[in-house]
Design goal:
Layout (H helix, E strand, L loop, with lengths): L2 E9 L4 H6 L9 H16 L5 E6 L14 E4 L3 E4 L2 H7 L4 E4 L2 H13 L5 E3 L6 H10 L7 E6 L9 H17 L5 E8 L18 H13 L2 H7 L2 H6 L7 H11 L6 E6 L4 E7 L7
Parallel strand pairs: 1-8, 2-7, 2-8, 3-6
Antiparallel strand pairs: 1-10, 3-7, 4-5, 9-10
Helix pairs in contact: 4-6, 6-10
Length: about 290
Amino acid sequence: MAALAAVLATTHHPFYLKATTAPPEQQMPQAMEWKRKVEAYRETLTRAKPDILVMVGADHFHQFFLDNYPTFLIGKAARYDATFYNEEREFGIPKYVLQGHEELSNFMHQGLLDRGFDFAFSHELKLDHSIICPIITTRPQADLPVVPIYTNIFVPPLPSPKRFWDLGRAIREIIDAYPSDQRIAAVGSGHLSLELGGPRQFQEHGPDPEFDRKAIDWLASGNIEAILENVTLESLGSHGNATHGFMDLILMMGIAGPQKASHVDHLDLFHTMEAYITWYPEGAAA
């Protein structure tokens, strides 16, 4: 059976590449620290020696809109084009073409249906920065096949935090059951407290530093009980209008299981907290 080699949960700041490759005189003060932290985080995936990446993200209204936004979706294509025009223009993110893994996508889709998750699917999915930014930070050579999974963290009605945890547990079961000797890593991105276009954007720190601190502690310790006791759809909205992206980080912890993380790091970037967390499931090389 396949081995789950590593699980990575991260934020996906779209300015990372631009901020850390600009001429030195144009770089933000935190640029080199940010780069060092990302390179240390990247090593946690490299060390796991994955053959396939299961990538979890959310579409930022690039191809799904209020009239047709799937709750959960899996890509089933042989290849995925990535990066939309506005992401190139505003963030300096280059275009990518990622290889798909149709066999695992089909196995995953059937397994999710069997476990009560009615996933939409796409053979023509184009990936945005929620997946491409983690590729840039954790696997910049973009040389591994991917199985992309998109979740709805933007358009009400939203699934509950418990549903994201349960989905993570289901994905873990399916990876463990996949009849292959390949090593699979799961890499997902979301948010801590975050305000987009609202009055708490571009402050000295994220809109709710106390939530950020607790959220990182919960993820680092694998404390799903504390998360489900304290995190609701309503409370997430109170921490910032885009903080529902934290549920994708709950999903990643669900894949890892309730265990302590092997790598935990973060960086305060004046209007948001970046987080970098890696779990090595029991039996995986660390």
